[in-house]
Amino acid sequence: MKEKLLQLIENEDKKNPYTDSQLSKMLGMTRSNVTILRKKLNIDDSRIRRMGLLVSDISSMMRSQSSIITITEKLKEKGYEISKNSVAQIISEHNLRGNLHENIQPKVKQESTNYEEVSVKNKGSGNVFESIIGWNGSLRNKVEQAKAAVLYPPNGLHTLIIGATGVGKSHMAEVMHKFALIVRDKRAESLPFVVFNCADYSENPQLLLSQLFGYVKGAFTGAVEDKAGLVDSASGGILFLDEVHRLPSEGQEILFQLIDKGHYRRLGDTNITRRADVMIIAATSEDIETNLLTTFRRRIPMVIELPKLEERDLDEKYDIIINFFRNEAQRIKKPLLITRNVLRDLLFYKCTGNIGQLRSDVQVVCARGLLSYITTGSTEEAITIDTEFLPSHVIQDTSYNKTSRAEIERIVHRDITIDIDYEDTEFKAQENSAYDFQENIYKDIENQYIYYKEQGCKDEDIEEVISENLENKIKDMIDIINANKYKYKKVDIESIVGKKVVDTVQKMMKIAQEEIDHIDDTLYYCLATHINATINRIRNGQKIFNPKLDYVRDHYIIEYALAEKMIEEVKNNYAIDIPEEEIAFIAMYISNYTKNSDRATNKVGVVIMTHGSIASGMANVANTLLGVDHVRSVEMSLDEKPEEAFERALNAVVEADSGKGVLILVDMGSLETFGNRITRKTGVRTLTVGRVDTLMALDATRMALLPEANLSYISKVLQEDKMIMVGENNQGIDRINSKKESIVVTICFTGEGMAKTLGEMITKEIESFGKKIKVISMRLIDSKKIEERIKELKNKYNLLAIVGTVNVYEPGVAFAYASDILKEEGLKSFADAIRQKIYDLEYVDDSGVAESLFKEEIIYMNKEIATKDEAIKFMCSDMLIKGYINESYLDGVLQRESMCPTFTENLLAIPHGYCEDVIKPGVGIMIPKDPVDWGNGRFVSIILLLALNDEAKDEFQWIYKIITDREIVKKIKNQNSSRKIVEIFNSKRKEFV
Question: Care to name a GO molecular-function term for this sequence (predicted)?
């Protein structure tokens, strides 16, 4: 594709070069991809490519021609496709001189002169924008745009302010109005600022009309008199349309006449056309390309895009934080002493809701500080704001790193006292946003305290009640923000794949977003689960298979080149080689999750079927984490007849099928037979996989979402990853019994030669890791049927797998072909799977992994520990000796802690290494004699060393609930018996799970 693009441009008409739109049609690519490829090849756009030749021709013509019209006609005669306006613009931009009668001034200089004139005329007019933090920094260009829009005669340029929720769009509009009052030397009543929230009337165009334009008597039932609308109220000033994306198409079209001609009619008035001289400022947090009509966008000449908080420098963010604290000090009417730890955390946490959320978080901190100040009866002059008052998401999202630590220390090096006698800079977030608290939140706290005190309640009870009310306010706010958002937070995916993978994928996403404008957020979640699976496969010596490699390399040129850059992050972070097949996968994901992608949409369907209420939960997790609505679920109650469940399963499969078949994930029993029956009855191709769990559901869904994936490919990957027999004839995997001896059966026609060779290879490979396995050789040519002999073995042993030259298709037993085992990588993968099954038998009893996580032998009471490193090394050393972890685990813990100290809001440390370095899962618990400094001035009293592997990873959810419960943590801290601590965790698990 590169060569074809170069050839097209080399042979193009130099006077009329191909535009990116024209090239996209010739190459069969999207315009955005053509632009990316062109930039990558360092090729200028069509305008610049012809500029040199065009300027030369215009210059020569200007020596003899005296008008732009004549020059334009001459250029057209020479073969140029060009307009008079374009010629005039080029003459202006390049400051060309000749015999022209027209007096053309460079556009930029003219604007500059206008600014200077206004500045001289209205001294101090720019001060109003100085109230915005960053006005001469990251927002400098935005402020200049805003000034230009207001200054444009006669009433200003219609303006669209865009940006994420909470970046300050409403405030920018308000400041533009204040600027207009100054430069036009008018009072507010003669230059009004009228706000209209489009969301309030998005579903009712008639009501929208009546509110905006007013109505005449009799226009509708209830219209008993004439009434002016908001447009009439805004005449001579500014009409601010907030959340303009919520206007339906009809609503946007209604505004056309007002924007174009300044004319409008009241609802019901067919005779009188009214005039309103208004400047329209609209604001939206959504993508204007997809949420606003093209015809509406064209009518708004000025677009101001405000940056996210994370795109602004730390100095500006610090100023914003301090200003918010000043505002709260004014409202509380008390000085505030803010500790540097609070300032650090607020400065560096990932504030996804931008300035609006930051403002809310500052309010939460101050509200909690005030509550503590009142209930403790403090006599201090200032309210101390410390880390205990921070919202939990601020602490959890804070991650200091080496590159920013020095910068943070430069900005925040001491505690700050905020007095109440200061001049407010008036920096505000978007007004009336979901992030705003009520103005009287602090008064509410005081009133509630007085009320409960009068009722005779104790201070600790009052604090608990008011805290709960405050938490509910916070939750309500968050619910509003997250309404209709079909995604988990990134912290949830982190609990599944680990922080290292998440950090790697975030860097990959940053690379992708720098080159492609519109990437669906779902790509993040798919990449996280996919990269995690890839790393595990490579480390386990499993081959990565991608049948579409050549096709992707040839047809997804842009995506493949981008994937090569992104995969470098994986190579660097994990020090492993990544094959081309994996690069092709990343390219496929990029292609599929680029917004507005026109790739094929047919995908493999996924249906999860289980006994009891399990399937819907798995489906919900898979759908939510991957941001889709793709997975369906069928749940069969234990007393339900199979035929009743079968009908529901059949309907689910038919709904899930889009032409590429359906993957059925089941747990056990009669559900394992549904796939074949559904295929015979409906013709929908199905593939059934047994022993489904949440991670399998995630992996299967991730693969099924790729348009290029098919059932055969998914079958191959799942079979290698889980050693599960998959196929149209699959019947699932039998449950294992820890009380039976485990075996592997090898089969060939004679029972000699091949079967024995396979047995020796398997035994040797497994025993090299200190495990033992019994291998039984069988032959196909025997008087007794093979099915009967296998049944006898299954009654006596745990039959883990069958290896042979011929597949005997035994339901519930994994099968591997002899030809695969004879290959080194195949033998290793098989042995890894068998060793894992042996581990399951040794460490997983009927109650699951959880009961074995907490043991007295790895609980360390009243230890004299001086430093964080000493605590980690002591626990790792002991757990290494006792067989929980390998020698590499300590390095993983220290590496993670150096990047980001891990502790909860209760100041309980939770250091952990990598899953692959865990031999058997366990949670080490240390209660040091004295609190230990865990970094950043945090002292912890309890340390949990989480040695969790893939089998135990899901257990972290209930462990986290326990360790974030203040009362439980206090109870653990006060214990002097390791047995009691084990009992607390095991008993609480039953409550939380």
Answer: DNA binding
